[in-house]
Write the structure tokens for this entry.
Amino acid sequence: MLPTTLLPFRRLLAPLVGYAMMVVAGYWSVRTVVGLNSALPVLLIFCTMVNILAWRRTGSPWSCRLPVQMTRSEGVALFLLILATIGVGVFPLIHYNQPAAIGDGWDIEVALPIARYLERVPVAAIATMPDNPLRDLVAHPPRISHNIGFAIWQGYVDLLGGFEAFVSFTPLIAWLRGLGILAIYALLRIWLGLPAWTALAGAGLASLNALLLWVSYFNFEKQLAGFPLIPLGLVIGAAAVEEIARYRLAAWRSAFLAAVVLSALPVTYYPAITVWAALAAGMGVVRLIEARRKPAEAPSPWMLIRAAAALLVLTLMIAAPTVEDYLNGFGFRYSHQVTSLGIFDYIPVSVIVGLEPFLLSRSGSVAPDSVVYAGGLALGLLVAGALAFGPLRLRLAGLLIGGIVYLAWLRWWQAYPYGYMKGAAYVGFVFSALAAAGIQGLRRWIAERWNNNIIQRVGAHTALIVIATGLCALMGVNQAQVVVAHLDQPGLYPDDAPTLLALRQIIPPGSTVTLTSDQRVQGVISGFAAYALDHTVVWGHVRTGYTRSQTGDIDAIGEYGLLYASEDPLLWGYTQPPIWRGGSYALYRRPPEVQRHLRVLKPLVPGETLTLRMNVEQWEASSVTGSAFRSLRLMVASLAPAAIEINGIPIAIPPGRHTMTLAVPPFQEVRIRHVDGALPLIETITLLADPDPNTIQAMRVVHSTQPTGGPLMREVTGIALVQASAVASDTHILMTLAALLPDAGPLNVALDIWDVERGVQYGWYGLLVMPEPEVQRFSLFLSLADGQMRGVSAQGGDVPLGAYFAGLQPGRYTARLYLAASAQVVSEPIDLFGFDITSDRAMTNVWTRDHQMQAIRAIHPTTFINVRVADDVAMVGYTLLPARPKPGDTVDLIIWWRSLRDGLDERSVLVHLVDAAGTKRAQADGPPAAGTMPTGKWRAGLTIVDARRLTLPVDLPSGDYTLLVGMYRWPSLERLPLVQGNELLPEAVFRVPVAIGE
């Protein structure tokens, strides 16, 4: 089907044309009635038949020869260049030793579910798939301006290879970048007529472009899907127009193939059309000039124009659905500059051509400015050589003018720095092609000018080699800088991927799963969790990176609950222990007796009545007890004694956090009224299928006007309660804070003020609260103008505060209150107040909230263990932050101790970091909780949150290390024995493995 002039090149073009045709065929399949799983077998059969026919008519494609014979060494060099391009694209994965998204671009949140869904159903049926936040996000791809070409190709690969979309994502992006280098090579060989080694040099320089590598690392899968089609479309489009204009017999067959290739551009990425159009226009003008210069050897200009118009009409016919998609959403998106990534300045030309790297967080080259300037002069010299002495320099000029016009259009017409950056990544190969042609042109000029002077000729060639080598070295260094910047760890959810993919095997397909709405994992982390659950029905109020979703009845509880690892599962109706832990999450199974669950989290002010409805249409008598009653479990908390009424029946709430179980008849609603005392926090209400026989006796209590007893009530231990209110006066905030830590601590009550939308921090303030059986009260005075805060206790004394103030920056700020154990946040933040700062530093829209209350279980380490120190202390568990430290990092080890008796002798905690040989590399010995909770003050049942900090040596080699944790008496230094289970641990230490990265 190739145009006649391209038939000798089909060995180069076959993978490129095959990619374009399969993408278009897949698009028509999923855009109409079938998913890729049904379309792929048909396409494979069709392609096999066509290949057999082609081989019979024209011979094996491996027997093809190029017009200028390509030697085996040149073919091997091209293969190695493509292999190296792919290798650089996946090199960080090799360093991570796991599948990952290399950069932190959020587009992967959209790309992965589209591929997964299209493997099974057409686009129109995505909305019918099980509830999932990402399903709602991608149900209508045009609405979110997402082309599906990459998803189609990824779906093919995953179906054929049995891959997981997350695993194949980054390698496929790298492969497409390699395919683009092949397409550039074909353009240089065919359209520009460059010799094989010159074309190879141009493709190599394009491969070294650091901007294009950054785009691929940043998960811009749409851009990379369209990248190979730009040079391919230029080559085939030009040849097809030529053939149509000459009225050759195979013209319309070739025109159809060219139209399919060009229609793949809008299938993969609409903006790629604009790049292709600008470059094609430059090539077209050149071709018209050539036709006028040699009218006897070529079709006339009007014949070429008519042929181009015919090809355009045919392309529009094949790409008709993409036009509809564009009008349904893409057009609106691209007419509004809604994305910036913080890019507000136009990248310089040096970045476009690869002389400097592009890094979103820190731009700039490791090379001195003088080296960059020298590289610019070298590139300018080579471009000038291409235009002055290069082969087919008119065609080179046309390609260059098209690229410059395109960049000018982006720069001054669109005036969109973000779009300019991405578009510039497409046209960088034009300058690489010119540089390669310049090398050849200058070599020819040198040979002609100094043909008889061997000394001058050798000197000029040496200078040219130095210039070319220096340019390649500079581009290689810049690309290496981009690679190194991404070697630390994956840009997205490094601790959660691919760990969460195990949920596909743990949770049966079709199960209902409640996904947490905890703010600590909302965003792209939550999006990946939703992706890992796409084989289930996902319930909950979930916010991912790009969408929000509310699915399931408000009181529904899933068969499984995927919660933040430090969350209290009781708040969601689940009970310990989790059936699985991984990354930031823990998985729970719904208790069989739980029917409905409401997560209320509502403090009741005096006299307020809370009315709750459980979504239960009909209650049946229990098959176990024969009773018409059900158990209703409430979880409530209060800083001080409180009195409430439940459906008119009074109930006394002691201080602390409690669960109470009531036996109740069928009801339509539950009415809870605050009668007297402190503010009660109504946390949860859970409907249990079969009441505990013991609660049947409580039924008369609940429904008697003269109660003689109370409901079954159980105190929840290891808790922390915080109640806060804020009042604004001009630019000053008065916060009142009450905390109850009866049996766990110390904890930091922290106030973090962020402009969350822009990621700008205004200030951080921390108050250390010690465990006490009584309520502790504080007043905090904050000046928003200068960030100064003063803390006063209930007794009137000043309270020491940790503080950080970043200064006034324009934005919309929210102050969030939370509890933390050193670097670990142990409670979901609650909003307390907020304000706006205008561009002229004026403060407006100050708002506050009263009666914000939170109760948490303070005992929530990442890793629970069963270790006893002597016979009077238990080591409950620990958390290590960060999970993957690097040399020079500060490491937080948080240990949860529990005292088993009062009056312990004075002790200190041992924490040593040792290598495989047992050599000590760092330590953090000292009394528990930095001396604020000496063991002499411990009482039975108290949990001590002991945060210890180590600073790793900067020169510490990467590898596996061990943290030794134990206790010893002070000052005798006598180590206390440690017992795990029934086993006495050697050296009286517990070992925590630590992997130190590079």
Remarks:
- Residues 13-58+74-107+146-483 form one domain.
- The chain has four domains: 13-58+74-107+146-483, 594-716, 720-857, 863-996.
